[in-house]
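dumping these here so i dont lose them again. two proteins, back to back, each one seq then structure tokens. dont judge the mess
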Amino acid sequence: MITLIEGGITTVPGFLTAGVRAGIKRRGLDLMLIYSKDGPVPAAGAFTTNKIKGAAVILSQKHIKNGRIGAIVCNSGIANVFTGKRGLKDAERMAELTANLLNLKKKEVVVASTGIIGVYLPIKKIEKGIRLAVRELSDSREASLNAAKAIMTTDTFPKEAAAKVELEDGTIVTIAGIAKGAGMICPKMKCATMLSFIVTDAKITQEALRTALAQAVDKTFNMLNIDGETSTSDMVIVMANGRAGNREITSDKIDRNFQSGLECVMGELAWMIARDGEGATKVLQVHVINAKTAEEAKKAAKTIVGSNLVKSAMFGRDPNWGRVIAALGYSGVSFNPRKLSLEFESERGRVLLVKGENPPTKKLLMRTRDILRSKEIEIRVNLGVGKECATALGCDLTYDYVRINSRYTT
């Protein structure tokens, strides 16, 4: 049983957080810290596959191999990407100072950065920010919200999600997280930038946590496409302190309820990112059903939701079903056009627009145009060649997306 609850990181016992202003951005909070009161705990991460990786990603990929993490520190405003040896030195300094102040080892600290590429960090400001964040660490509701705000760049609202989950042994655990992202989002992560930090009080081994995270990322964040851009700084980190006292979850004793709860929280965060896509006016869900394989279902769904022509049509409330069919056609998946069907759905209704190779009538097109007036649109594609399905998330493409990204550094 999964119950969504209000709040973020601090709903999980044993974790403290803070969000402060270090002066990196022109205004607002810009440095976040998450700390485990129990010291280093089992942790796992997923990171961008972009060949250009930020200094924070390079360092944190190395630190996460340790298997136990005690703190996460993140700055917004500057991504610390393509900054060479100095960038790595600055990332290491963030980890080192955080570790010293919290009685941890440097390798027990994860570092993240998000913002403009090719700019050096104002490390003195960040050092002051880290010291301030350590002083302000708290388990209050306000602290969690400030942490979510401090990692924002072009986001228009902070993103938090939390849930209570009943495990198979009857223990109730809490899983909670924060995320940021509005643009430069088409994550391709393995075991702007999309960042997410998740904590739980479940008792789970590092190996099992790594497997659970990889599966959850594949079903949630990796099925999200705002603009087709894979960031240099994508990162998801999960920490588990074991305070719930459940029967330990291991690779040999997987708890399906924990997996579902983790996917639920990450799915909520992914939905918020889609809703907050840069300049977006609509959230798009593309459901592909009856595909030959699970991978083909995912591929088809992500191709359609990532199509600029589909996105543009959704923005203009244009029932241009041909854009969807064309994207499906170049996706590389197997299907028979004669067995294909296409539906559009929103709070305003549902319409079967295409069935087989029969073009829709004008009446159906007008009905679809009305459905597209809603802020949440579902596109359902039935390939009719198998039993596998997948869902991808995205948003429409608007004039404001171009405006925002035409002056991002200025």
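---- next one ----
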Amino acid sequence: MENLTFIHQYVPARSADAPTLLLLHGTGGNEHDLLDLGRILSPQAALLSPRGQVLEHGMPRFFRRLAEGVFDQDDLRRRSQDLATFLAAASAAYQFDPRRIIAVGYSNGANIAASLLLLHPGVLAGAVLFHAMVPIVPDRMPALQQVPVFIGAGRSDTLITPQQTQQLVDLLHGAGADVTLHWEPGGHAIGRGEVQAATDWLQPRSIPRAGH
């Protein structure tokens, strides 16, 4: 299938009106890692789970970094474009609504999801970001009015400080996004409490179609 350049898993939706969850793993993960999480978050949704194409010491990632928390901005822009292109091709191949894609990302996956929001507004209808930080500050702020974003963070996270989490919240707020921030007492791992909070946030929500 043309432009389906990511190794990936696709699970069809269980109902016609369900959204598609774009599942984006953390460093060292793969296309299988977040399938169970996606099913918990939205039992009826289609699941699209690509594997990151960058290897760091043999571990898949979605973009290069120069050091811990220091991202290769040129590579991030290129990989974000590649992911946006993949989403368009996947929606055509699997016949799901490209305007109803909700990213669910963890760590590195959450960071590229945030990059998609900032660099390619209209690609995502919403996002669930577990343990994310500001990946990039765009030259021109996007218009993200009405775009819902859930951010789960750990107060004892040694990789992402509360200040870095707040910087991401402020950046997305500044672009007009509707941001919900949930704190857990733990560290960088996804906590049970934030999964439940994200499920509660997502289930009753009617996600607007991207670009509408």
